[in-house]
Amino acid sequence: MVAALALHAAALYHAAGGKPLVVATTGDTLVESPEVAHHYRQELVRMRRFGKQHGFDVITRVVQPSMASTFQVKILSGRALPSFPGTHGDCSTDLKIAPQRTFRRQLFRSLAGQGRAEPVTLLGTRYAESARRSASMRQRGDSANVPVRNQDSELVLSPVCDWSDDDIWEGIALYGSSARPCYSDFEDMRRIYAHAVGTSCAVVADAILDGAGSSRPGKCGARLGCHVCQMAEDKSLANMVEYDERYAYAAGLQRLNRFIRNTRFDWSRRHWVGRTISGGYIKIQPDTYHPRMVRELVRYMLQLDYDEQCRAEQAGERPKFELLPLDMLIAVDALQSLNGLARPFAAWADWRDIHQRGVRYDIPDVPQVAQTAVPTARFLHVGAEWDDTAAPSDWTGLRDPYLESFTADSPCGPRLQVTPGGRELWALPTAQQFSVDPESALLISEFEVDRLLDVHDAGLAPGQVTAGYRWYAQYGCLTLSHAQRGEHDQIARRTAYKDRLGLTLEYDVGALRSWAVPFEDLPATSRLAWRQAATPQQSLF
User: Fold this and answer.
1) Is the distance from CB of 56 to CB of 19 less than 8 angstroms?
2) pLDDT over 70 (residue 256)
3) How far apart are CA 271 and CA 81, in angstroms?
4) Pair 339, 77: CB distance under 8 Å
5) Long-range contacts from 39-43, C-beta under 8 angstroms, 24+ separation
6) Which residues contact 281 (CB under 8 A, 6 or more apart)?
7) How is 172-223 classified by DSSP, letter by letter?
8) Nearest one of 528, 100, 520 to 278, comparing CA atoms
9) Which of 98, 256, 369, 498 is close enough to 503 for a disulfide, judged by CB 3.0 to 4.6 Å?
10) pLDDT value at position 416?
C-alpha cells in the first residue's frame, strides 16, 4: 500500500513539473519463503516499469545479509544456534535490519554527493497493528504528514500510520482495480495472503490472522516469515503446501524446519567443547551444534537443493530456492575445516554422493525431544593458551610448514605478517566483511573438485583437520573481515588443541565429560573465573 501511494505521488509530482526519485528496497534473508521471495522480485520489476511509463526514475534493490551473517554460514560453521523462543532474536538484526541500514547509509551518501535533497524513508507501520507497536510509534512521534528523525537521524514518514485494516484493504481494492494509477493489480499478494491461511480470500485470511494474533508466540510475529524460523511457529508455508499442489515443492523446507524444532533439546546433538579459556579451563557443556548434527544439516540442505533442481528442470522453470549456492557451500566447507567440524572438503564429498552416486539424505521425521535442564557444566584444563600443550616444533594457527617449505623462495608462497602480540601468521586479504571470491569459486567448481575429493578420500593425517580452510585461503578464494585475520588464527590454534585430544569430528561426549572435572574440584582462582557457571541454568538455548 505504501509503495502504491509513493509511486502515485511521484507520478503526480512529475506531471506537475517535478523530478522525483523513488528507491524501493526489500530484504532477502536467503531463507525466505520462496513464494514471498519470487513475489517481491516481480513487484519490483513492476515498480520500475511504472516509473518508466510515467517518466520518473525508480531504483530497486534486493538487499542481502553479509555472508558471515547468513543463517547457513552461522549455523553450519558451528558459530551459532538458530534463534529459538526465549533466546536472543538477533536473526532479525543480522538478516534484515543491519543490511538495510548499511544500504540506506551508502545510498544517502551517494544522493548527497549528487546534490539531491535529503531523502525520506517511507514505512508501513500503523498504530492499529498492536498496542506495543502503537506505543513505540507514539514515542517516536510517527506521522503520516510530517517526517520525523529516527534513531539513526534519518527522516522517516509513515503514510498509513492512521489507517485501519479495512482502510488498507479498501486502498488495495482501489489501486488494484486501476481506479487509481498503480504499479500492480495485487493479485499475487492476495493469493499469497489467502493461501498462507488455507483459504481462497485474502481479506478472510487477514481476519483469521488478526484473530490469532494474541496467541502467536515469539518475537518475530511474521505471518510469512523465513522457512527455517524457530522464533515463531509460522504455519503459512505448511498451510500453502496442504492447500494447493502448486506449493508441493516446499514440503522439504517444512520437514527441515520441524527437524530443527524437534531436536532443540537433544543435548547429544550439541557441541560440548567451550571456546573461551578462563582460569586455565574451558567449559564442557552443550553449546552450538555437534559436528555430527552440522554434517546432517549440510546433507539435508544439499539434498533439498538437488531435489528442487530436478523438479525445476522437469517443469521447465527456475528452481524456487537454493539453500547452499556455490559461494555459500565453499564458505561452509572452509569454516567447518577451520573449526574442526568436518574433514577437509567433506561438503564436496556430500555433494558427490547426492549428484553422482545416487545417495539420498532424506530428512527424518523425529519426535519432539522434551525440554530438560541444561546438563551441569564440567571443566577441562587447557592452560593459559591453546598452544600450551603443543610440541615446540608444532606450527599452530594460520601457518603451514609443508606449504611454506616448498614455497620459501617463491613469490607464490603465502606472505607472512607479525601480529602486535609477536605471532607470525599468513597475511590473508581483508575487506569490510567476509566473502568468497566468485571467480575463484567458479574455477574450483570447474577444475578442482576431483582433486579435492581425492584429498578427502585419502583420509585425514594427524594435525590436518584445518587443511581445507588453509587450501581455500591459499587459493585466494577467501577474503576475511579486518578483525577475522587474528580471530581465525586463534580458532585454528583452538582447533589444533581439540584435534590433539581427539575432540574434533565425531568425538564422544561421554568420554569428554569423564576427562573434565566438576566446578567444585577447580582450583580457587579458576572457580572465581567460572563462578557464573555454578549458577543453575534453564534450558532456553
Assistant:
1) yes
2) yes
3) 11
4) yes
5) 39/188, 39/189, 39/192, 42/188, 43/3, 43/183, 43/184, 43/188, 43/189
6) 379, 380, 381, 382, 522, 526, 529, 530
7) HHHHHTTSS--S---HHHHHHHHHTTTSS-HHHHHHHHHHHGGG--SS---S
8) 528
9) 498
10) 84
Q: 470 and 395 in contact (C-beta within 8 Å)?
A: no
Average pLDDT on 124-128 reads 94
Question: What are φ and ψ of residue 32, in 5° steps?
Answer: -70, 155
Residue 219, pLDDT > 50, answer: no
Per-residue pLDDT tens over the stretch 360-379: 999 999 999 999 999 999 99
Q: Give, in words, the CATH class of 2-184.
A: alpha beta
First-to-last C-alpha distance (Å) of the chain? 38
Report CA 482 to chain centroid distance, whole Å: 20
Backbone angles phi and psi of 521, in degrees to 5: -95, 0
pTM greater than 0.90: yes
The packing angle between helices 484-500 and 326-338, to 10°, is: 60
- pLDDT digit string (tens) for 292-338? 999 999 999 999 999 999 999 999 999 999 999 999 999 999 999 99
Contact 292, 506 (CB under 8 A): yes
Specify the amino acid at residue 323.
L
Which residues are within 8 A (CB) of 213 and not within 5 positions of it... i.e. 6 or more apart?
Answer: 130, 221
Return contacts of 520-529, CB within 8 angstroms, 24+ apart.
522/279, 522/281, 522/379, 523/279, 523/280, 525/279, 526/278, 526/279, 526/280, 526/281, 526/379, 527/279, 528/279, 529/278, 529/279, 529/281
pLDDT in tens, 75-111: 999 999 999 988 877 888 999 999 999 999 999 999 8
Check residue 231 and give its pLDDT.
86
Identity of the residue numbered 221? G
Place of cell 508441493: 248
Using the predicted structure, report yes or no on whether residue 148 has a pLDDT greater than 60: yes
* Alpha-carbon gap, residue 283 to 285, rounded angstroms: 6
Residue 109: how many other CB atoms lie within 10 Å? 9
Rounded average pLDDT over 380-386? 90
Domain locations along the chain: 2-184, 267-534
Cell of 126: 500503523
**Closest to 328 (Cα-Cα) out of 27, 67, 63:** 67
